[in-house]
Design goal:
By secondary structure, the chain is an alpha/beta fold. It is 33% helix and 20% strand. It has one domain: 3-Layer(aba) Sandwich (Rossmann fold), CATH 3.40.50.1450. The protein has a five-stranded mixed sheet with strand order 2-1-3-5-4, covered by helices on one side. Helix 2 links the parallel strand 1 and strand 2. Helix 2 packs parallel to helix 5.
């Protein structure tokens, strides 16, 4: 992540997820927690997009970010809680099925409007059933990522 954020000037983080589908809520949950952590940071804007990330394209374009990180549950055929940074060209290789608009379309649209570098931070879900509970493994990954963002802020990466 440090390499991706090198030379960044303005970062937008977009959390995506369905809070009624177990671990699929992870993007929204992480966005809410990051918003609290970064509330005084002028450099980072965090959005909780829920299940409609396309509704935030106008706000993101208005922010004119140099870098965008999307956070979502991604089926990578790994153990629950596994975290992977997925570059735009690799997105088609993974199953991201709970959204009406494919993330690859969203990313292409955002990138066509400016010079933002975009990355998908994927977390392997364990349970995607109808539930408002996050699995222990995914909760641990969320905690890890909050510490990672906090450390990046303290080391002046953000």
């Amino acid at each position: 992540m440090e390499e991706f954020l090198k030379n960044s000037q303005k970062l937008v983080v977009l959390g995506i997820g369905n809070e009624l589908r177990g671990d699929d809520a992870l993007g929204s949950l992480l966005a809410k927690k990051l918003s609290n952590l970064l509330k005084d940071n002028q450099y980072v804007t965090v959005y909780d997009a829920g299940t409609v990330p396309e509704n935030f394209t106008g706000a993101i374009k208005k922010d004119n970010p140099s870098h965008i990180i999307l956070i979502d549950a991604v089926d990578m055929k790994e153990r629950p809680g596994y975290i992977r940074l997925i570059v735009v060209d690799e997105i088609a290789n993974y199953s991201i099925s709970t959204h009406a608009l494919p993330l690859s379309f969203l990313i292409k649209y955002l990138e066509s409007a400016g010079t933002a570098h975009t990355l998908l931070l994927g977390i392997q879900p364990g349970n995607m059933d109808l539930s408002d509970k996050i699995s222990i493994e995914v909760e641990k990954s969320i905690t890890y990522l909050l510490k990672l963002f906090d450390n990046l802020i303290k080391s002046s990466q953000l």
